[in-house]
Amino acid sequence: MCLLRFAPLEKPEKTNNMKITSATYISSKPRHEQCPTDGRPEYAFIGRSNVGKSSLINALTERRKLALTSSTPGKTLCINHFLINEQWYLVDLPGYGYAQRGKKEMEKLKNMISDYVLQREQLTCLFVLIDIRHDPQKVDLAFLHFLGSNGVPFAIVFTKADKLSNSKIKPAAEKYLQTLKEEWEELPPYFITSSTSKLGREELLAYIDDINKNL
Q1: 180 CB-near residues (< 8 Å, 6+ apart)
Q2: CB 43 within 8 A of CB 125
Q3: Residue 143: enclosing H or E segment and its boundaries?
Q4: CATH number of the domain within which 56 lies
Q5: Pairing state of beta strands 88-92 and 79-84?
Q6: Which has the closest alpha carbon to 29: 93, 90, 89?
Q7: 10 in a domain, yes or no?
Q8: Tens of pLDDT along 15-50?
Q9: What stretches of the chain adopt beta strand conformation (E)?
C-alpha cells in the first residue's frame, strides 16, 4: 500500500482570487539543470500524449497560443517554462507513453521527465492530466505509482469533461478513483476540467494561489 506525499494544502473551498495578468514564455530546455535558477515555485503539467495539456494551459492562462497545440500528439520535447504574474512558473513537460516514438527517443524523454520530477527542487506540485473519458490506463497507473513511491507532491487533473454528458462526469471520475483505492491508502487532490467550458479553471488557480501564499 503506497503512502503518498501531497502538495501542502487541501483543495480550497473559497473562490479563486488569482488573476492572470501576465504569462511569458521563458525557455525550453532538455535538462532540468538548464532551467531558470531564480528559485520561484514551479507547477508542472504532464500526461499522456493527446490528453489536452496544451489546451488546458492556454485555458488556465487565458492565452490562446501560449502553449502550442497540434493535431499530432507528442510535440512537446523539452521542459518549457512560462512565468506567470512574475511570481511563479507554469511548466509544460513532455507527454509520456507515445508509442510512435522510437525506443531511443522514448528513453531520452523518460530520463528527462524523471530527472525533473525527482531532482528539481523548485517543483511545488505536479499536475497529472488524465482523460476522463477513458478507463484507467496502465501507463498512467504506473506513472502515479512512480510518483507515490518517490514522495512527489502531485494532484490529478481530469481533462475533456465537456466530451461527456453532465450526468456521466462525476461517475467517470469516481470510477477512476475507485481503481486507485485498490492500491493507494490515501488519494491525492483531484480536479475535473474542460479547456472548452473552463470547468475547473478557478479551482485549479485557487489551489495554486493557496499553496503560494503558504510557501
Answers
A1: 136, 141, 144, 187
A2: yes
A3: helix 138-149
A4: 3.40.50.300
A5: antiparallel
A6: 93
A7: no
A8: 677 899 999 999 999 999 999 999 999 999 999 988
A9: 23-29, 42-47, 79-84, 88-92, 123-131, 154-159, 190-192
Measure the CA–CA gap between 98 and 52, rounded to whole angstroms.
14
Q: Which structural domain range is residue 62 located in?
A: 23-213
Sheet bearing 79-84, strands edge to edge = 23-29, 79-84, 88-92, 42-47, 123-131, 154-159, 190-192
Residue 177: count of CB within 10 angstroms of its CB: 16
Cβ-contact 6, 193 below 8 angstroms: no
Q: Helices 138-149 and 166-181 meet at what angle, rounded to 10?
A: 50
- Determine, yes or no, domain membership for 113: yes
Are 62 and 19 a contacting pair, CB within 8 Å?
no
pTM of the complete model beyond 0.85: yes
Residue type, 59: A
Question: For residue 26, how far is the Cα from the chain centroid?
Answer: 19
- Determine, yes or no, domain membership for 175: yes
Beta bridge partners of 97: none
Determine, yes or no, domain membership for 168: yes
Domain count, the chain: 1
Q: Which of 68, 75, 74 is CA-nearest to residue 54?
A: 68
Write the pLDDT tens digit of every residue in 47-84: 998 899 999 999 999 998 898 765 444 456 899 999 99
